[in-house]
Amino acid sequence: MTSLARQTPRNLPGIGLPTPPDAPLPDGFAVEVAADTHRSKDGRLMLGGSPPRLIRLTTTAVRLLDGGRFTVTDPATAVLARRLLDAGVVHPRPGLPPVHDTTVVIPIRDRAGQLDRLLTAVRADPSTSALPVLVVDDGSRDPAALADVARRHGVRLLVHPYNLGPAAARNTGLRRARTSYVAFCDSDVVPEAGWLAPLLAQFADPAVALAAPRVVALPVSEPGLLDRYEKVHSPLDMGAKEGPVVPLSALSYVPGATVVVRRSAVGSGFTEAMRVGEDVDLCIRLHQAGWRLRYVPASRVGHRHRTDLRSWLAQRAAYGTSAADLALRHPGQVPPLYAAPWSLAACALLLRGRPAPAALAAALTGAVAGRLRPRMAGADHPARAAARLSLAALRGTAGQLLRCATRHHWPVAVTAAALSRRARYALVAAALAEGLVDHHRSGTSLTPLAHTAIRRLDDLAYGWGVWQGAARRRTTAPLRPRLALPRPGRRARPRT
Fold it and tell me: At the topology level of CATH, where does 102-307 sit?
C-alpha cells in the first residue's frame, strides 16, 4: 500500500479543464430520434429536448431521418448528427466496444463489507474482471480491515493518512490511473453485469467527457416505508429517460456514485474543497468547458439507500447545504426556480383564485401562444402546437412554484401561513396536491398519505440544509430564482 498526503495544486472551479478537441463524429456513428421528440407529418419540423427546441430540417436531413435514425458517413452527416445531439432530439447509438483501457477507482472510508461486495461484483463480471482497480482508503478508523479485503481481491490500495473527503479520494485515484478512462464507483454500489460497455460506448463521440449509469435501489427482503419511498425517489436515481446532461435542464447533473470519465478531459478532477455537491460542480464545469455529458440508464448499478430515519434526514439536509457553494461557484446555474416572467405573472394571477385575474392569466397565455404561432409554421396544426407549448410552460412554472413553496422556500411559506389565512390554506393545498400528484406519477407501493408525508419530510430536510448553507456562507444565492429572458438579438435557429 502507499501512504499519500494532500497534494497541490488543488482543483478550483473553471480552472484546469481543457476544451474538447475540434474533431467530428466518426464515420459509422449512429443516432436515433428520441422517443419524446415530436415530428411534423412531412418530417421537416422537430420539437424536443430539454428545454424544448424547435428545429427545421432541410430536405436532405428529412430524407436521412426517414427511418428514425441515420449513420455518419461524411462531414455533412457528422455536422447534422452533432447539431441534433446537442439539441437533445436524437440519442447516440454507438456499437458496444470491448471493455479495456479503464481503471476502476473506489473511494472509501471503513465499510470493509461493502468493499468486499463491490469487488466481488467487479471480478465476477467477465467484462471487468481483469481491469485494474485502485481502492483509496480515505482515513479509515480500521485500515487493516480494508487492507485485508484489498489483498484478497488482488487490488491496489492507496491510503490517505487522514480523512480528506470523497472528492480528494477520487482525485488520488485519478492521478494514479494510467488508462484513458476512469470509472469511479462509491463503495455502496453493486454494478449489474455488463454495466461498463454501454458507458464506454459513449466515448466514441470525441466530445464526451463523462457518462453515468442509472443508480437503482438494491432489493431488500422486507422493505420498510423509506425503502419503498427511496425506490421511486432516491436523489441518486435520475430515472429511465436517457439524454444529455445540461445545466438548467430536466437532467442538470448526474450523481457521483458511479461515473466514467475521459481522463484527459477532467483535469485535476473534483473540487476537493467540496464535501457535498462535488459531482454537480464537475458536471457544470465540464459543460462550461464545452464537453458533452451523457446519462445512460441502460447501464445500471444497484445502491443500498439509507433508510434509517435519522441518517436519511441528515443526508437530505447535507445535500441541501451544497446549494450555497454551488450557487456561488456557478451563478445562475442552480436556481430553485427557472421560468419566464410571463409564466410567473400568469401563475400569480391564477393564485388570486378569482375570475378576473384568471381571465387575465388566460389572456396572457393566449398572447404568448399567438407570438409562438408564426414559429410553428410547418407544424401540422400551428395554432394547436403554439397553445400546447405555452400551456406546457405555464404548467412547468406552476410545478416549480409548488416545489419552491414546499422545498427550498418552506420557511418563507410557513411564515406567510402563520400570518395569513389565505396563505395557510394555499400552503396546505399545495403540500397535499403536490404529494398526491407525485404519488400517482411515481407508481409507488406506498399509500397516498404515507408517500405525501415522507415527501414533505424529504423537502423539509433538504430545504433546511439549503438555508443552513446559505446562512453559513452569508448569501441568498441558492434561494434566488432566475428569470428565463430572451437573449438580445437572438435569431431563429438555422435550418439543419
Answer: Spore Coat Polysaccharide Biosynthesis Protein SpsA; Chain A (3.90.550)
